Amino acid sequence: MSAAPLVDILLATYNGAAFLAPQLDSLLAQTHANFRLIVSDDGSSDDTLAILRRYERIFEGRMLLLPPQPKGGGVIRNFERLMRASLDDGSAAWIAFCDQDDVWLPEKTARLLAAVQALEARVGTDAPCLAHSDLTVVDEQLQVISPSFAAFQRIEPAQVNARTLLSVNQVTGCATLINRALLELALPLPPDAVMHDWWLAVLSGSGARDYLPEPLMRYRQHGRNQIGARDRGLPSRLMRLARDGGGVLKRVRQLGRGTRAQAEALGRRLRDNGLDDGYVAEYLAWRGRGRLARLFTYRTYYVGPELDRLSRWLLWK
C-alpha cells in the first residue's frame, strides 16, 4: 500500500463524452498516484456513463462511480453530492475538484497537496485550508488561447483577501484542493451559495489560502462550459455591452444580490461554528450604506478592473 497521503478527486459529469477521456487519462498520469476518483453524473444522455464504466477497470479500484441520479440537480448540487460522499467515507484528508472537460498537468495534485500541507503546518489541520493555481486557457483542440487564466481575466488571485473574496471570486474550483476541515465547514452548501468554489473560497477566509501562480492544468473552452473564461479587455467588454447591454446589467445586479445573500450565509455559518464573523459583519454593514457613502471606499472591497469596480459601486445595493 502506498505511504503517500490519500486525496479524493471529485469529478462532476453531465453529457461530457466529447472531452471526458483525455481528462481521465490526465488523472491517470498524475505523479501523486494515491488518489481516489469519486464521480457523480447528473443524468447524462450521451456516452458519458459508458466511458466512465470503461475507465473504472483502467483505474483498478481507484474510481468510485456514485449511483446515477435523475437529471436536473445542476453543477452545484452535483458537487455537493460528491463532497458529501467524500466526507461520509472519511478516508481522505484532502479533496480536489475536477471538471469533465479539462486536462491536468502531471504535477497538479502533488503541487496543490504540498501547498495545503504547508498551510496546515502553519495554522493547524483543524483550520480550513485551500490552495489553488493558475490555469492555461485552451480551445477545443487544446491550442493555447492564453498561458495564464489570471492574466486573461485581468485578475490577481495572489492579492485578494478574505474581505475582497466576499464580492469577487478569484478561486477557480477545478484548480483547487482543500483539506478536510474546510470540507466539514462547507457542508451542507447553503441555498445562497453562488457557486460551490466561491463558497469554499469565502470559508477559507477563516483559515488559510495559498495561490500558486503556475498553470497546473489546461482549461478547455468549447462554448458549453458551465462558467468558462472570457476576455475581459475593454474592447471585448464594450462589444458585449453593445450586443446585450440589458442582459449585462441584469447579470451584474443579480450578482450583487447573490454576493450579499452569500455573505449573510457565510456569517451564519461562521457564528454557528464559533468562528469570527467580524469582517463579514463589517462588509454587510458597508454594503447597507448609501451609494455616496461608499464612493471613497469601494476599492477596499471591490477588486479587479476599474470598470468592474465602478459597476458594482453603481449597481449593487
Automatic annotation (TrEMBL):
The protein's name in its UniProt record: Glycosyltransferase family 2 protein
Limits of the Glycosyltransferase 2-like domain: 9-121
InterPro entries: Glyco_trans_2-like, Nucleotide-diphossugar_trans
Domain of life per record: Bacteria
Organism for this UniProt entry: Ottowia flava
